[in-house]
Inverse folding.
């Protein structure tokens, strides 16, 4: 890796951004004060190249030019010798806007994704009992308390960028497009980061393009800082089901509507992931599922937190619990009654044995006394009248999926190269340089297959102009599917090194030829969540979480446990839950010893926590509480309305 | 104004605005990259430093407050034996903070261990300056208790409070 910046802070330009106060507006006037040579203002027209960021075929403007599409969109970048001067000068900038009366229709959104099997029954004869459930998540759009700092400087003919990023190639692409600077000469120095959702994906690339432009214009190193933003889309899932006389679902339709904000990124992939979560685990004679993406003048939910699988899984689990309620039994007993030994094979997820899931369910049901608490809460609720019992417990079970879908992997062409050198070492050319812990595991796995007992002989090449693009590090793609691709390449290389002349190289891409469906299932889990609403303050608190997770292989137990705990904690807090002193997460981790696919832990844990929490809140606060996040104010409103 | 202080063992005389936040001083005047965040006082909780062994959010400490005081950032603290105690505590509890808040949380733990705080409410109150939700309360309390135990075993003399 090239040397990091070694220039003085006194000889650089510091940039801050002006964000729009509202979306769906037209810029009437952008008035700048008189700026001397020490200052630089960049608007949408000042970028030498294209004013867009492109991601998997979709694009959005870096800086708003004439129209402001969403609240918080970048309108202006102002560079000054220091941040204090930049902030003071920014106060002199005046932006006047006028609302756009006729909202333009977003024509770039894909059609709704439909998936079905069997014929649907009309039920005009009333043969089946009809039931309907609705699950919704309110949009979360807020600053995530992170500050993105991106620095750009020139050294000879090279443009250096220092930034935290989930996808180095996106930075290089965006900078090349915005500045016209050849990609070969753009060197990215990665800063350490932890991405809980989809942070460090788009924003660093956008800031890098602006900072690089400032560097070219001023000839000085430029640094730009901006507050990070987290946006979860608004989700609404409506399900209609026909039940037989034993309350078993026979025909079902599910419709998911997702508002991705002003610009949709990878909406087709979102639809595929969401559809995988929407497909119910129980057998049905007929099923119709649809996932529709809509837009609104709000901050784009880039990778939408989890690309939809978590939310759809939570919606399915919420639905199953409502059906159990309808049938007058506990969700796990109801589930045992309606599910078969094996799940149905679909285009999205293979037909796998449900044994693992059942074991996880049994574990959490037993350790949390779920059946007893569920029944007690249900009975007490009926006794308590208007205010309700204010206690609830919910369960969610499901399977994990790994990384991106097969379709996206085939389209994207992300690749890497593994070489067995004459010095009997293995080098890997990839942009997927992740956290040290993951790299250590990768080195061990590869060395076991090619050069046993010598992990130090496996080397990941330093990033440079010839680094191959292995795709973004979101959704644990690099940990999940990339690990398998490395394994597979290592196996093939171990054969080739014996038969071919050294050095021998093997280029492998992200296409997973062994995936018959869009996603491969991996790992099972069950989560129980117990909540209590304070009678006086109406603040919802979570009193305990019980989780049982079963994976094919556990590479690092401690990291895995921490990752699950963190995801559970973050999901609870994100959805408005207070965490009291007595709160505890009871985790049970197990592995079945098979060397199988690795799943995205965060997606699974997040989806199940969300599902269990929705179920618990439904029991505690009643029918109107289905939308998360929820606050004390909203709960108070629910009970007032009931009065 | 001129401010004399000790930052990471170096005695410095800094010439700066009296209300400049410590986080910016560390970043701009001393070139410390550890305090990666400066959230303009939005309480992100990721810029904790030790000021005379007490954990504080550096973005909330104005320059005049550090006059004559000792500031320790995670960059120098991570090499001390005290950090080893905290690492041992993480290991024995089986839980550790995420990379985002690792530095800040470790410094708050150090402050609590140094003071010998064992009251759970007090521990959680102190830890509330870190907004990252990656650890559950019980683990945090256990880490402090284990840290105090490890420190005692090492026979480190703690400052006496009147």
């Amino acid at each position: 890796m090239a040397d990091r910046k070694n220039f003085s802070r006194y000889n650089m330009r510091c940039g801050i951004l002006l964000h729009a106060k509202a979306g769906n507006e037209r810029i009437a006037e952008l008035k700048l004060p008189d700026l001397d040579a020490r200052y630089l203002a960049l608007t949408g027209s000042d970028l030498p190249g294209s004013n867009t960021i492109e991601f998997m075929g979709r694009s959005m403007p870096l800086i708003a030019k004439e129209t402001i599409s969403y609240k918080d969109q970048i309108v202006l970048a102002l560079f000054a010798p220091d941040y204090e001067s930049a902030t003071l000068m920014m106060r002199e900038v005046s932006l006047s806007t006028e609302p756009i009366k006729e909202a333009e229709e977003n024509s770039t959104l894909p059609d709704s994704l439909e998936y079905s099997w069997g014929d649907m029954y009309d039920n005009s004869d009333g043969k089946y009992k009809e039931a309907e459930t609705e699950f919704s998540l309110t949009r979360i759009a807020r600053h995530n308390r992170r500050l993105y700092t991106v620095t750009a400087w020139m050294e000879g003919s090279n443009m250096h960028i220092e930034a935290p990023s989930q996808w180095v190639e996106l930075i290089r692409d965006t900078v090349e497009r915005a500045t016209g600077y050849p990609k070969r000469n753009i060197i990215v120095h990665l800063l350490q980061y932890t991405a809980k959702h989809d942070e460090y994906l788009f924003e660093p690339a956008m800031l890098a393009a602006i900072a690089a432009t400032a560097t070219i214009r001023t000839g000085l190193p430029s640094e730009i800082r901006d507050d990070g933003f987290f946006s979860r889309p608004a989700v609404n899932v409506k399900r209609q089901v026909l039940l037989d006389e034993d309350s078993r679902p026979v025909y079902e339709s599910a419709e998911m509507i997702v508002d991705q904000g002003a610009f949709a990124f990878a909406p087709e992939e979102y639809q595929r992931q969401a559809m995988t979560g929407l497909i119910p685990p129980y057998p049905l004679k007929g099923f119709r599922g649809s996932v529709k993406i809509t837009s609104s003048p709000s901050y784009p939910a880039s990778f939408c937190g989890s690309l939809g699988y978590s939310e759809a899984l939570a919606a399915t689990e919420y639905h199953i619990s409502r059906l159990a309620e309808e049938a007058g039994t506990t969700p796990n007993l109801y589930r045992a009654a309606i599910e078969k030994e094996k799940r149905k094979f679909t285009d999205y997820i293979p037909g796998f044995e449900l044994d693992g899931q059942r074991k996880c369910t049994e574990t959490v049901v037993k350790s949390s006394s779920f059946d007893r608490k569920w029944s007690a809460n249900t009975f007490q609720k009926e006794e308590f009248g208007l205010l309700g019992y204010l206690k609830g417990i919910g369960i969610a079970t499901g399977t994990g999926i790994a990384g991106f879908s097969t379709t996206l992997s085939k389209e994207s062409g992300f690749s890497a190269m593994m070489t067995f050198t004459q010095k009997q070492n293995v080098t890997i050319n990839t942009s997927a340089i992740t956290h040290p812990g993951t790299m250590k595991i990768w080195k061990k796995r590869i060395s076991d297959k090619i050069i046993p007992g010598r992990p130090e002989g496996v080397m990941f090449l330093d990033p440079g102009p010839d680094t191959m693009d292995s795709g973004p590090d979101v959704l644990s793609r690099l940990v999940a599917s990339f690990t398998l691709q490395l394994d597979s390449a290592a196996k093939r290389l171990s054969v080739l090194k014996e038969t071919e002349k050294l050095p021998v190289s093997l280029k492998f891409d992200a296409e997973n030829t062994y995936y018959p469906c869009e996603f491969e299932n991996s790992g099972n889990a069950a989560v129980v969540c117990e909540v209590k609403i304070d009678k006086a303050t109406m603040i919802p608190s979570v009193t305990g979480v019980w989780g049982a997770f079963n994976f094919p292989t556990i590479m690092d137990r401690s990291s895995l446990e921490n990752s699950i705990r963190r995801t559970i904690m973050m999901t609870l807090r994100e959805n408005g839950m207070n965490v009291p002193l007595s709160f505890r997460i009871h985790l049970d981790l197990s592995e079945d010893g098979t060397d199988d696919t690795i799943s995205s832990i965060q997606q699974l844990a997040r989806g199940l926590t969300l599902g269990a929490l929705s179920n618990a809140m439904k029991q505690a606060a009643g029918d109107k509480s289905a939308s998360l996040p929820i606050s004390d104010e909203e709960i108070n409103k629910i009970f007032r309305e009931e009065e | 104004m001129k401010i004399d202080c000790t930052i990471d063992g170096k005695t410095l005389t800094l010439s700066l605005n009296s209300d400049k936040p410590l986080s910016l001083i560390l970043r701009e005047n001393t070139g410390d990259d550890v305090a990666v965040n400066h959230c303009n006082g939005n309480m992100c909780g990721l810029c904790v430093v030790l000021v005379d062994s007490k954990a504080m959010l550096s973005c909330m400490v104005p320059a005049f407050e550090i006059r004559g005081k000792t500031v320790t950032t995670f960059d120098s603290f991570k090499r001390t034996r005290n950090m080893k105690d905290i690492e041992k505590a993480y290991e024995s509890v089986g839980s550790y903070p995420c990379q985002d808040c690792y530095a800040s949380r470790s410094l708050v733990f150090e402050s609590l261990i140094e003071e010998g705080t064992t009251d759970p409410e007090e521990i959680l109150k102190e830890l509330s300056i870190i907004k990252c939700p990656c650890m559950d309360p019980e683990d945090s309390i256990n880490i402090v208790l284990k840290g105090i135990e490890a420190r005692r075993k090492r026979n480190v003399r703690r400052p006496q409070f009147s």
Remarks:
- The first strand of chain A starts at residue 13 and ends at 19.
- Chain A has 15 helices and 25 strands.
- Residues 601-621 of chain A form the longest helix (21 residues).
- Chain A has three domains: 9-103+149-224, 325-402+518-642, 414-509.
